[in-house]
């Protein structure tokens, strides 16, 4: 059954570390076949959380013909001073812009930013100020010679890869497993990944309040993956890992694993 979604337009206050002003303007769109809430949020440069809030949505489900109101921010010349603990991902989410735009506006060739740098967050180019790096590469520990059995090659390779990347957060979670053809599942993730066409995709379902959608993660016993899906039962420190078959999901069962958020 189709439904018309009314909206509440909220204008967020700009952080005291940003220079400039924003004016909000609203527009209404009609959901088309193939649209996802994530895709619409990215296309219109708003966060998934804000888009749901604007339209009083409690889930990610939308229907063809639905009317969505989108409040877009007309950005003036704004600059943001990088603080300790910042990353390009956090700044992009804060100002509802993409990481690629941030890098383009500020002539960045990598995701490394410096504390004290002044970044354009609205399209005006600015040169980053050299200072202390916000993201530091973690040193790779040398292998120690022991009498213990060596880990499997694939596991060792995944652990080595994650060790070379900046770890934003590490936690212990309860992990279950699912497949694209489980009953009641469309096979299309909250961010638009088609698991039916990509049965071997390394994807996990998360609570976006704990692990942001789009984050690259390393899951103990599973490897590197993308937080690209959500689920009604996935709340708090709980994840659901995608596997190709029901037998693999059954074999996974329920276990406690360590998760590293890499970006």
TrEMBL record:
<protein>
    <submittedName>
        <fullName>Peptidoglycan-binding protein</fullName>
    </submittedName>
</protein>
<dbReference type="InterPro" id="IPR018392">
    <property type="entry name" value="LysM"/>
</dbReference>
<dbReference type="InterPro" id="IPR036779">
    <property type="entry name" value="LysM_dom_sf"/>
</dbReference>
<dbReference type="GO" id="GO:0019867">
    <property type="term" value="C:outer membrane"/>
</dbReference>
<dbReference type="InterPro" id="IPR051933">
    <property type="entry name" value="Resuscitation_pf_RpfB"/>
</dbReference>
<feature type="domain" description="HTH cro/C1-type">
    <location>
        <begin position="86"/>
        <end position="102"/>
    </location>
</feature>
<feature type="domain" description="LysM">
    <location>
        <begin position="27"/>
        <end position="70"/>
    </location>
</feature>
<dbReference type="GO" id="GO:0004553">
    <property type="term" value="F:hydrolase activity, hydrolyzing O-glycosyl compounds"/>
</dbReference>
<keyword id="KW-0732">Signal</keyword>
<feature type="domain" description="LysM">
    <location>
        <begin position="78"/>
        <end position="121"/>
    </location>
</feature>
<dbReference type="Pfam" id="PF01476">
    <property type="entry name" value="LysM"/>
</dbReference>
<dbReference type="Pfam" id="PF06725">
    <property type="entry name" value="3D"/>
</dbReference>
<dbReference type="InterPro" id="IPR010611">
    <property type="entry name" value="3D_dom"/>
</dbReference>
<dbReference type="GO" id="GO:0009254">
    <property type="term" value="P:peptidoglycan turnover"/>
</dbReference>
<feature type="signal peptide">
    <location>
        <begin position="1"/>
        <end position="26"/>
    </location>
</feature>
<dbReference type="InterPro" id="IPR036908">
    <property type="entry name" value="RlpA-like_sf"/>
</dbReference>
<feature type="region of interest" description="Disordered">
    <location>
        <begin position="126"/>
        <end position="168"/>
    </location>
</feature>
<dbReference type="InterPro" id="IPR001387">
    <property type="entry name" value="Cro/C1-type_HTH"/>
</dbReference>
<feature type="compositionally biased region" description="Basic and acidic residues">
    <location>
        <begin position="139"/>
        <end position="157"/>
    </location>
</feature>
